[in-house]
């Protein structure tokens, strides 16, 4: 297979993974009937919030003919991820750094939930990114302090479960508090999972489910990563009023939760394409965690083994990798994985790869135009060195975007309006 054809094939796999998790595909069959009396209150948050709200509005207003006067709600998505809605408000807010728009959108969501009656149905449309988009700091904590803490956590190398353990104890909406606010209404959550293991308590920081984590565990996360928080946050994490509702709490008596798309669903779709191309799909897991460069080294070694054995295959993997920032460069875990993979493969002939975040952006400054990831070709390092680029130096500076950008090897699909986290495919064309 030519380099051009191999890259197009990998791009096709990424697109299939995204399509399998898009709300157009997975949301309509899961939407519950509207309540017989009262209002249907739609509360959407996360990178898929715009598309989920768009699909849900179309279903209830156009397909079912629901009286618009009985529909209320709001969606809060990442900047650039909003979608046109017929009647409900769509807010675009900061991610991964929370901002004032997210603060206002979260407060409106809280107010709507708190206004619900026993006749209403509160339908929560949740996706990855909601933790940053729904920003409602606990009493005594302001937005600037939350931003400082978020920046420190993101640079620390902490995984998403650890980060969300802290977030849930500094919020008025996360960690089951949204369900408590909506009582006595029925609460139904439909979620697109972006976390390893698909744990509802971690997806979007679990605003409608019991939280098994504790204030003490949140403090332990900060100590583990040597993060010295602002005084207001340290005080909040010692305030028992900020403990989250636990399993068995009455707040969840009228709440139900359904996963409508998982990372594994995207890999089921891509495995079909791999087999149709006459290749062997090898799924290494949809829930991998760890340092991006370490996972890349391990997958490079596996790819070399398959190459030596004459196996034509595609290594598939998902999850959420981390990057411990030691440099000052640009890029996220998928781009760093790709750069580390290229270095480890050292131009091995016949091995190609793509690594991308299914939401369409990977790290960066939070702009919707940030790249989603990058492609690796057998001549990646040769082209880089011919252009005067030192791969090892870029890796040391965590500057994977700066490395791939001049080579034209960035993956740039733009906002996909869904999110089932990382997608990696390493194609061995023996």
Automatic annotation (TrEMBL):
Keyword Metal-binding: no
UniProtKB keywords: Kinase, Transferase
Pfam families referenced in this protein's UniProt entry, alphabetically: DUF4147, MOFRL
Limits of the MOFRL-associated domain: 10-237
Protein name: Glycerate kinase
Organism: Ancylobacter radicis
InterPro entries recorded: GK-like_C_sf, GK_N_sf, MOFRL, MOFRL_assoc_dom, MOFRL_protein
Domain MOFRL: 314-422
A GO MF term: kinase activity
The UniProt record lists the keyword Kinase: yes
